[in-house]
Design a protein that fits this description.
This protein is an alpha/beta fold and 306 residues long. The protein is built from 12 helices and 12 strands. It has helices at residues 3-15, 18-25, 29-43, 59-81, 101-115, 128-137, 185-189, 201-210, 224-232, 242-245, 249-252, 282-305, and strands spanning 48-51, 54-57, 92-96, 121-125, 142-148, 157-165, 167-171, 193-196, 218-221, 237-241, 257-260, 268-275.
Length: 306
């Protein structure tokens, strides 16, 4: 058994395709496939489920995946302790809900890049369920997800609170809603509404907020970034956590603004999660610490603005 065989399995699992894994690893697909088959023969287990549409981790492989990732983490620690500078360039994979992308993630990744110039960061926008699956399967090292206060935290993860915000109405400055000190439900329903698709925390919140009532017209979109762009283009209003909008480039440029929801005191949490593991690579720890520090700075700045 060779370390690169385990790395190949991890790459195929993360990318969901032998072809994409071969491209990333700079191998031919037949060579990669044969190397994986050699490992399967040695272990006596089919690690991959191969179909015409592609390859993915098998049920048996998924049971062994935590052990594979543990071995790779141990190799990372060994190489780091030995001062292997080549291993500093490992990739850190971050899954993030779109509501967290711009005001916090971009400055943090920029700062991380300055202190880790040869470490790649793979940034993937996804829904909460996909991020949790990726963390458990080793496709992500860290995950940024949202919760409403009172939600149960899933087992199997280390969770660090980053930000606590309130749902706000995101509108253009020339919208009738921008003239209000706080937006009541009747006023919100009178305007076209951009709603997040099912699977996002803000979809669940808006569904609860409307209590079965329907807006004058609604759009459905996949993620906060597209929602903010649609608002900036005058298609309607949307409801997002305040930390997703305050500090966003569109907000700084005056293309969008926010108003509180009248009578609502819901807390929306942004947390950073990683799977429970006996070892965490140094680059992942460093990025984790940067997120915590920058979240504290963002929170202090946002408080001064309000």
């Amino acid at each position: 058994m060779r370390i690169e065989q385990l790395e190949y399995i991890a790459a195929v699992t993360r990318l969901g395709s032998l072809r994409r894994a071969a491209e990333e690893l700079h191998l031919s697909q037949p060579a990669l496939s044969e190397t994986v088959r050699n490992l399967e023969r040695e272990l006596g287990v089919d690690l991959l489920e191969r179909k015409r549409s592609g390859a993915k981790i098998s049920d048996e492989g998924r049971e062994l995946l935590p052990h594979i990732m543990s071995v790779l983490d141990s190799v990372d620690r060994l190489r780091g302790a030995a001062g292997d500078q080549h291993r500093v360039s490992r990739m850190v994979r971050l899954g993030t809900v779109n509501a967290a992308t711009v005001p916090l993630v971009i400055p943090t990744v920029r700062e991380f890049r300055a202190s880790h110039p040869v470490t790649q960061v793979e940034l993937v926008g996804a829904q909460q369920a996909d991020i949790h699956r990726g963390l458990l399967e080793g496709a992500f090292d860290l995950g940024l997800v949202n919760y409403l206060r009172g939600d149960d935290m899933p087992p199997g993860f280390e969770t660090t609170d980053l930000l606590c915000g309130r749902p706000v109405v995101c509108v253009r400055p020339d919208s009738p809603l921008a003239a209000l000190d706080a937006v009541d439900l009747d006023s919100l329903l009178a305007e076209p509404l951009v709603v997040m698709r099912s699977g996002y925390v803000m979809h669940r919140f808006v569904h609860r907020l409307l209590r079965g009532r329907a807006p004058s017209f609604s759009y459905s979109t996949d993620g906060a970034e597209m929602g903010k762009l649609m608002v900036a283009e005058g298609l309607g209003a949307t409801v997002l956590p305040d930390f997703s909008v305050v500090g966003d480039p569109l907000e700084r440029q005056g293309a969008i603004t926010v108003r509180p929801l009248a009578g609502d005191a819901t807390d929306v949490l942004l947390v950073l999660q990683r799977r429970h593991s006996g070892s965490v690579p140094r680059a992942v720890r460093d990025l984790h610490e940067l997120f915590v520090r920058n979240a504290q700075a963002y929170d202090a700045s946002a408080r001064r603005l309000t």
